[in-house]
Amino acid sequence: MNQPLQTPAPANRLTSTRAGGKLVKDYWDNIFTARERGATVVWYNGAALNPIFQAMGIEWCHAEAFGARLAATHMEGPAQAMGEEYGYLRELCSYARTTLGCAVLTRREAENPASTAVADDMVLASRLPAPDLIVNAYAGCSTGQQWDEISYRIFDKSLPFFKVSYPLLWGNQPDFDYIKGEEWEAAARYVADQLRQLIAFLEHTTGRAFDWEKLREAMHYIKIAGQLRMDALDLCKAQPTPATFWDWVACIAPINFLPGNQDLVDFFAGVKTEIEQRVAEGIPALPRERYRLAFDGIMNWNKVGWLANKFAANDAAVVCGRYTHTSFWHEPHLIDVEDPLLGMAKHYLLCPFNHNAKVLGQLLIKDCEKYNIDGVVFHSTRTCRSASNGQMIMAKMAQKAGIQTMFFEGDVADASFYKDAILDTRLEAMLESIDVKAMAGR
């Protein structure tokens, strides 16, 4: 096995994803000025309901996304400390603890802005505008379903609050399969009906009529962007791969919560074009690709760049992952632009934590076969057990299919749970096992 470098070498990351970073920054900068512009603001969690908010003409703040942004920029500490000071345990979902800390800061500043002096590293965490209403839309996570109820209490239960409920896809019916069967269809109809009730709630709360044509327009752009993203993902079947999981991590924010418009389409068209060019010119994501891996679980937002370079230093291309390849408008053919609610409901049910373990394992093995994967890296997320549920079953299914596996523990937004030495040891052991298997095959 190749010996890893002492300092991880940089991976050859896509340059087109930088445009997405600017779009995301512009989005948040717009949110930060919502109060000055007199805009109505909704805080929400879970599914990508933003097309509905876009059509309603209100500004949306996705709490998980803001927690991830703070962690990715290493500015999560003050918000997490505020959450703990307010009484939220450190073992609580670090997404929730981070943004609940932001909610405390936001409320304090809204109540007495003249006396609120915050440290430099706390400025970003305290910039969210206070919400006018709260919407919860969490699939596959019991903590997420309670998260906005806690936010509701922070703001003294004085805000309009709506919850969309998503049934877990247990797969108990004999005709059930991935996006197939009566259980799937019944669940989709159930969620679509709740989306209609959500629209009625928004109309009542804002006093404005919902603009169905704007929803169709937003979903038109999202469907095109989603297909461009999936086409670009398929190009990574090439060996060596032209892009890695870490590039697709950088594409999550745009497809997850940015407005459905031409800018979104242009961004993913640019990503696809760069990958096509790399394939045509034989430009790899890693200069010495030796291993092809899959990544299961939410990434460590604090460590995205570090992990990308660490795997690259071991000549290991992380090609695909559950969070990037089987979520976020990843079945664009389901979207009916003329009558969008049912297709939207189906996508919300396809949250990567909303399936039973058998289906998750089947999807994993399908991707492993598609991308010619040697091993699976399971990130056991310390404060997000919904992301870790089923991973042992999935690992056994992968091993039975002849794919090597490893586990390491970390977290989505709290860097203190990650231990570099543990990842090094387990990664080295798995890559050695892949080498032994390859030698035996020869």
Helix percentage: 40-55%
User: What's the number of domains?
Assistant: 2
N- and C-termini, Cα separation: 16 Å
Could you state the order of secondary-structure elements as H and E?
HEHEHHHEHEHHHHHEHEHHHEHHEH
Largest sheet: 4 strands, parallel
CATH class of the largest domain: Alpha Beta
Number of helices: 18
Mean of residue pLDDT values: 92
Per the principal axes of the C-alpha atoms, what is the gross shape? globular
The counted number of beta strands is 8
The proportion of strand residues reads 5-15%
CATH topology of the largest domain: Rossmann fold
How does the helix and strand content classify structurally?
Answer: alpha/beta
What is the radius of gyration computed over CA atoms, rounded to a whole number of angstroms? 22 Å
Residue runs with pLDDT of under 50 for 5 or more positions: 1-8
Strand order of the largest sheet: 2-1-3-4
Secondary structure elements and pairings:
Layout (H helix, E strand, L loop, with lengths): L16 H16 L8 E6 L3 H7 L2 E4 H10 L4 H10 L7 H18 L21 E5 L4 H13 L6 E3 L18 H25 L5 H24 L9 H5 L2 H6 L4 H20 L9 E6 L7 H10 L2 E6 H4 L15 H9 L7 H14 L4 E7 L3 H4 L2 H10 L3 E7 L9 H22 L1
Parallel strand pairs: 1-2, 1-3, 3-4, 5-6, 5-7, 7-8
For this entry, give a set of tags.
alpha/beta; Rossmann fold; four-stranded parallel sheet; 10% strand; globular; disordered N terminus; iron; iron-sulfur; 2-hydroxyglutaryl-CoA dehydratase
